[in-house]
Amino acid sequence: NRRVVLAERPKGAPDDKTLRLEESAMPKAGKGEMLLRTVYLSLDPYMRGRMNDTKSYATPVEIGGVMTGQVVAEVVTSDVDGFAVGDMVLHGSGWQDYAVSDGKEVINLGANPDNPSWYLGILGMPGYTAHAGLLNIGEPKKGETVVVAAASGPVGATVGQIAKIKGCRVVGVAGGAEKCAHVVDTLGFDACIDHRADDFAAQLKAACPDGIDVYFENVGGKVLYAVLPLLNAFARMPVCGVVSWYNLPGLPDGPDMGPAIMGTILRMKVKVQGFIIFDSFGPEHHKAFIADMKSWLADGQVTYKEQVVDGLEAAPAALNDLLVGKSFGKMVVKVG
Ligand code: NDP
């Protein structure tokens, strides 16, 4: 049984000393338990936060502990009611080949689910994040302008496609020409701006002639600073993530942006609300998400892109890529 553990807490970007692949004894399922074999492991930006020993909504991974992560796994043996050998399940068993579970907090996807890895993305946590955060906090209205960065990733791509369904003008922000072309041509956004362009702020302004009504915050940094002067009165800002800052070892150099951020929120009466998908919304929101998303996928109103990386041993480098924009689409690791 191979597993990836946190070897040391990174200062700044994780490096090859941060995570360690090791062999451990094969776990044994006892009475009332089942043995799960990981098939797909999800890689997500929040994993960088779990490496830090700081106050957060979740406890950090301990040194020597298995890295946190959601997986799609196959039931190998089962003494748990409702789970049969061969069923595919969704579970938080982390970065390892095998795990034992008593069935608590495990979702059974059945014996042969279509596209099982999608339950880590468009039909899972990132898709739900986009749906619940945009519709309940962003409250987009027909004709309004919605801006979202990391626009080719699982959250941003879904936010933008839902905003199009709701009749908005949608402007994405992404890193590089290939991602921007995908965002406009395949996902159907009205425009997509490359945040690496020297005149990024000017391009964003030109793409938002009526200002910005909803800024779905995924990245922070210079995208946030370019958005601030474009926000309309009573704009809404669901704060979902600030991935451009996750690798910072401390506060960044440069001018104090506090006055610009807080001054804009005050003058433009911006609603800013952070949320964590695990506990910010009720079961009725999840039900609405599943119903909407299944129908939008079926009729082609939403499309989904994955990047599948092969092998547990490739996961540490793949997570580093994800954090700096070298991934393209939802990153999953094919473990077994
Ligand atoms: P992605 O797969 O889209 O990966 C992150 C992307 O962020 C990169 O691909 C890159 O895209 C972009 N990025 C990285 N650095 C920068 C930078 N300096 N400036 C601009 N963009 C940058 O991630 P997800 O879709 O899974 O997640 C998106 C955000 O949502 C993250 O902040 C994540 O933490 C957050 N999140 C929050 C949840 C919650 O409950 N609040 C739940 C799930 C996700 P590009 O190359 O296009 O720049």
UniProtKB/TrEMBL annotation:
CDD domains: PGDH. This is NADP-dependent oxidoreductase. Residues 5-15 have a biased composition (Basic and acidic residues). The keyword Oxidoreductase applies. Its EC number is 1.-.-.-. Keywords: Oxidoreductase. Signal peptide: none annotated. Transmembrane segments: none annotated. GO terms for molecular function: oxidoreductase activity. InterPro entries: ADH-like_C (IPR013149), ADH_N_2 (IPR041694), ER (IPR020843), GroES-like_sf (IPR011032), MDR_fam (IPR045010), NAD(P)-bd_dom_sf (IPR036291). Residues 1-15 are annotated as: Disordered. It is an enzyme of class 1 (oxidoreductase). Residues 12-333 form the Enoyl reductase (ER) domain. The keyword Oxidoreductase applies. It comes from the Bacteria.
